[in-house]
Write a structure and sequence with these properties.
It comes from Candidatus Buchananbacteria bacterium RIFCSPHIGHO2_01_FULL_39_8. The chain crosses the membrane at residues 243-265. Pfam families: Glycos_transf_2. The chain is of the alpha/beta class and 267 residues long. The protein has a single domain, classed as Alpha-Beta Complex (Spore Coat Polysaccharide Biosynthesis Protein SpsA, Chain A). Helix content is 37%, strand content 25%. The protein has 8 helices and 12 strands. The protein has helices spanning 15-25, 48-55, 70-83, 102-110, 174-180, 192-202, 225-242, 245-265; strands spanning 5-11, 35-42, 60-64, 88-93, 96-98, 116-125, 132-134, 137-139, 145-147, 160-161, 169-173, 206-217. The strands form 2 sheets. Strands 1, 2, 3, 4, 5, 6, 7, 10, 11 and 12 form a 10-stranded mixed sheet that branches. Strands 8-9 form a two-stranded antiparallel sheet. The longest helix has 21 residues, at 245-265. The protein is globular and about 55 Å long.
């Protein structure tokens, strides 16, 4: 495969994950001269940066002085990919472990059709590898998003269209990014992948799952006020950006009812 791929990993206090992640990347089967790993540290205050500099000198490292958020940090990486004439970027979470052929399978599917803008790998739960983390994600018309197939037993499947890709493991064509733009940096974190997938479909691109491209995710479900704030705020930003005005008027009663219900449910 001759396509150049930039693997972008955003790191924030991820020292405990990096050994497993980078070790798995060192074994991938994609031609060595055709991919590059770019790590963007988002203001870590643990040993992440020291670990990378000491053990993984072949990795290109950009250090942000503060946490710019998942969206803006990835934008820095994607801008690097565009500037340096890569064909694709692959966004990979710090808490993942990849199968050796994950990248070539994603590239193979992406390049099988010029209308494919992004390809998600099959995400399996690392701590329960017989269970699915995501096989492509879904969007409710009110902007709520959820992982497709979450915690279901893994099963054989063919490539398929998906609504939007999980930002933890997705290959995006540079040509598509030039058409639709990068992440909305206002999102900071959460829902930026929802917005990206939505914009890809609106611009006529397909988003697909590559089931032979497998990534294991050390996913842990968590709740916090901060997470709830960003998910709700960004849910509204997503629908405001992507729906027409008349559609927003149509769904506004449902949004109001849902928000009232969620407010009382939170107590």
């Amino acid at each position: 495969m001759n396509s150049k791929v930039l693997i972008i990993i955003i790191v924030h206090n991820g020292a405990e994950y990096l050994g497993d992640c980078f070790s798995s990347l060192s074994k991938i089967t994609y031609p060595k001269g055709n991919f590059k790993i770019l790590v963007i540290d988002n203001g870590s205050n643990d040993s992440s940066v020291d670990h990378i500099k000491k053990n993984w000198t072949e990795i290109t490292l950009i250090e942000n002085r503060e946490n710019l958020g998942f969206a803006q940090a990835n934008n820095i990486g994607m801008q690097y990919g565009i500037k340096n004439n890569f064909d694709h970027v692959y966004l990979l979470n710090q808490d993942t472990v990849v199968e050796p052929n994950f990248l070539e399978e994603a590239v193979k599917l992406a390049e099988s059709n010029p209308k494919i803008g992004a390809v998600q790998s099959k995400l399996l739960l690392y701590h329960n590898q017989g269970k699915i983390n995501s096989i492509g994600n879904e969007i409710h018309f009110l902007g709520f998003a959820f992982a497709g197939g979450y915690q279901q037993p893994d099963f054989a499947m063919e490539p398929k269209d998906i609504t939007y890709p999980a930002g933890a493991s997705v290959l995006i064509k540079i040509s598509a990014l030039k058409d639709i733009g990068l992440f909305n940096s206002e999102f900071f974190m959460y829902h930026e992948d929802v917005d990206l997938g939505w914009r890809l479909w609106l611009m006529g691109y397909k988003v697909m799952l590559a089931p032979q491209s497998i990534v294991y995710h050390k996913y842990e479900f968590s709740r916090s006020i901060k997470k709830y704030y960003y998910m709700e705020r960004n849910r509204y930003l997503t629908i405001l950006q992507n729906y027409r005005f008349l559609t927003l008027l149509l769904i506004s009663p449902a949004c109001l009812i849902m928000d009232i219900a969620m407010f009382f449910y939170s107590f």
